[in-house]
TrEMBL record:
Principal cellular location given in the protein's record: cytoplasm
Entry's Gene Ontology molecular function annotations: DNA binding
Cellular localization per UniProt: Cytoplasm
Protein name: Probable transcriptional regulatory protein LQ50_20455
Gene3D superfamilies: 1.10.10.200, 3.30.70.980
Membrane-spanning residues: none
Domain TACO1/YebC-like second and third: 79-235
One annotated Gene Ontology cellular component of this protein: cytosol
Pfam family name, one: Transcrip_reg
InterPro entries: Integrase-like_N, TACO1_YebC-like_2nd/3rd_dom, TACO1_YebC_N, Transcrip_reg_TACO1-like, Transcrip_reg_TACO1-like_dom3, Transcrip_reg_TACO1_YeeN, YebC-like
Family: Belongs to the TACO1 family. YeeN subfamily.
Residues annotated as domain TACO1/YebC-like N-terminal: 3-74
Amino acid sequence: MGRKWNNIKEKKASKDANTSRVYAKFGREIYVVAKQGEPDPESNRALKVVLERAKTYSVPKAIIDRAIEKAKGGSEENYDELRYEGFGPNGSMVIVDALTNNVNRTAAEVRSAFKKNAGNMGVSGSVSFMFDATAVIGLEGKSEEEVLEFLLEADVDVRDIVAEDDSIIVYAEPDQFHEVQEACKAAGVEEFTVAELTILAQNDVSLPADAKEQFEKLIDALEDLEDVQQVYHNVDLGE
């Protein structure tokens, strides 16, 4: 699953280079999740997942606290959760998740981004069947054998454990996200290099240089949209 991690790493690197945009997106997501349930991560598992992911992007505490306080304050600001599916150059597959207070605006912007970058929108279900919801946890300071041992001792099932660069990446079912993290913490892991509840392509594809360049422009255009929270795809962006 190495190339899957590379895709996540590329996305993370891209986001790290645009911190103000990242923080704004996290603020919106934290507000929405906190408002949907309890504004306490200990009783709102969805909020806890978002906050764990926010840590890996170094989102300032002030932004997190502001979003939660806004939810506690009963703000009337509402957002719709939307998912768009489409195709990029050479039949590459893309999924876009958005939070918006104007559905028509967001749909038009996403459609335009696809059209201007050699892509096209698909219908619901046209792409998502080729992706799997996955929990991805990254950590350092442990070997694959050590991670496997303490996960087995904690009776936590995972899909795969892979050494990538200086990290150990654990792939698991989405409902095992917290269990994996708690087992890691019990084994002395204090920080995570990645903590994503995401969707991964069942098979990554490679594109020729010209198509890859166009595809990267498409992804950048989508991620630049204010209402877009996450963009997933099946292209190997590694060298």
